[in-house]
Amino acid sequence: MKALLMAFSMYSRLPVPDFVWEEEDRKKAMCFFPLIGVLAGAAFFLVYLFMERSGAGPVFKGAFLTAVPLLATGGIHMDGFLDTCDARASWGDREKKLQILKDTHAGAFAVTGGGLYLLLYCGGCSELPVRGAAAVSVGFVLSRALSGLAAAVFPGAREHGMLADFMKDSRRRLVAASMVFYMAVSAGAMILLGGLCGAAAALGAVLAFLYYRRMVFREFGGVTGDLAGYFLQLCELFMVLAAAVCHLAIS
């Protein structure tokens, strides 16, 4: 139970009771990371249903749906996305990019990348049908499962950092096996609930993961907490856009 609470304490805004963090619990905490997606996905779908039944316009609906995952997580993953946008836009060498990731200031490319992301995500959400929204809701579990898998099997880009410290001496085989289980269940549920839109969203997640793997190895030499946040945001954007485009194509 403490490992579960530790994961929610780190990666969500859900209030959790105070407790003493023990080393053994930290080693297993990542196994529960995808369950945060259940919270975010449930909130996303409930807001979608409320907007649909209240007769909200597509822009208003899209804006609220865009805000849901940011509010559920406190923007911790978006922070990594913005830092990575700055680092990649520097066109520096690996060490310079890693140094920029640690910079607490937001540069012009972070602002531009964040603005573009929110516009595309809002636009995608505004076009989601109910089955597509259901698939995207489950996709919050899939994105975290893929992110957790990368953290378990990809090398770290540096020895110390938020992700490196959190994963230090973790039971990586247990984490990887847990992530594969979450991936299979969530992807199956997305296809079952969303049909073609769900399949398109799941495919979008896989493509985002393949792109992420190539990018982190080529540009950074491994993963960091910021890069993990970048991937999670990118994965969720790919899923929303894939579901929306699929709906428009078949409607």
Give the tally of structural domains: 1
* Number of helical regions: 11
Query: Strand-and-helix sequence, N→C?
Result: HHHHHHHHHHH
Quantity of strands, as a count: 0
Helix content: over 70%
Unreliable runs: none
The end-to-end distance, rounded to whole angstroms, is 45 Å
Your description of this structure?
By secondary structure, this protein is mainly α. It has one domain (38-126, 141-157, 170-250). The protein contains eleven helices and no strands. The chain has helices at residues 2-11, 23-29, 35-54, 58-73, 76-89, 94-102, 108-126, 130-153, 162-167, 172-219, 225-250. α4 (58-73) packs across α7, α7 runs parallel beside α11 and α8 crosses α10. The N and C termini lie far apart (45 Å). Pathway: Cofactor biosynthesis; adenosylcobalamin biosynthesis; adenosylcobalamin from cob(II)yrinate a,c-diamide: step 7/7. Its EC number is 2.7.8.26. This is Adenosylcobinamide-GDP ribazoletransferase. Its main location: membrane.
